[in-house]
Fold ABC transporter ATP-binding protein.
Amino acid sequence: MNATTQMNDAILQVEHLSMKFGGLVAIGDLSFTARRGEITALIGPNGAGKTTVFNCITGFYKPSEGMITLNRADGSSYLLERLPNHEIPARAKVARTFQNIRLFSGMTLLENLLVAQHNKLMKASGYTVLGLFGFSGYRKASAESMELARHWLEKADLVDRADDPAGDLPYGAQRRLEIARAMCTGPELLCLDEPAAGLNPKESAALNELLMDIKNNTGTSILLIEHDMSVVMQISDHVVVLEYGRKISDGNPQSVRTDPRVIAAYLGVDDEEVETVLTEVGDEDVIEQLDIGPDAAHGPGTSSSYLAGPVTDTVGHSEGERVTVSKGASKAAQVDARANLPRKPSERATAKPTGKSSTAKPRGGRK
Ligand SMILES: Nc1ncnc2c1ncn2[C@@H]1O[C@H](COP(=O)(O)OP(=O)(O)OP(=O)(O)O)[C@@H](O)[C@H]1O
């Protein structure tokens, strides 16, 4: 694969992105790529910086440093951090949904999908009232908008409720309507912020089906923030993991799932599974870490600049050795530090589960 092909394969390139809020470094030197036609998931514990990354991509925040490049299928590229906010959906073709549903709840489902196409319709009217009645271009655009709205209502399995107010829909259906509305803008990159939050298993399955349909049958690539690991593991092609604003893992779902740094930072798997995986990688120290629970001293909210800081901390090791890690080090960094310790081969071979039950949970709860 040559360099040009690789460039075209990347719909989104995030390079050395940093976002600071006063003394708080919410994102620190983050780089990753989302490939065209794939579902890329951005995961990490609460406060890891996922929504901040979305806000930088979609123009809500201007990053402190770094470059965000959107490569459209027609070969044009846009530096999103330099594009005015309103041009990001219109020119770069990036659409997003939010953690909190933002539908027009008093409008019908159909009206919600037509409003999303307002710009296209206004353009076709020539921006005049006369245009609304006189231009054949407007009538054609209007018919196309209705057709597109109907298409996405069908895809979202909502066509039977087209004339109901959006606010009357069950929660899972509202989530699908939001995605349908975003798809009516014809995005090349669809950014979804926790689309499965609050869904029951049946609604979650319907969401997975809709997202797989988008992936397989449209040219739209998906970037997804999600806490629901059943969604992430089932539909993602590529997973990027953040902790304290830094990338700690990047790969396919299977490799990320078994990465000890991820397990230590973001316990999105069953307790038994955590122990099995850690035993397989021979790291009993991490299991002990998990039993201690979340590292409140290093968590968000307790430090005004927890990514930076030369202060060091000395951590006792079960075999009497001592590992020095930076005081602000994340659990992932501590796992890395321990991984560098010399170990006797015989000890590695005989590593056994401790039999202790891991009690640590992902930091914080869902919003
Ligand atoms: N506008 C802001 N001003 C100050 N701090 C902010 C702002 N937005 C985000 N932060 C801080 O940046 C850090 C990352 O927040 P962010 O919401 O991006 O995390 P997240 O990974 O999306 O979390 P969650 O999973 O809970 O949604 C947090 O410490 C948060 O308090």
In short: The chain has three domains: 1-93+186-257, 104-185, 267-349. Residues 104-185 form one domain. Residues 21, 24, 26, 44, 46-52, 300, 367 surround adenosine-5'-triphosphate (CB under 6 Å). The CA atoms of residues 11 and 71 lie 5 Å apart.
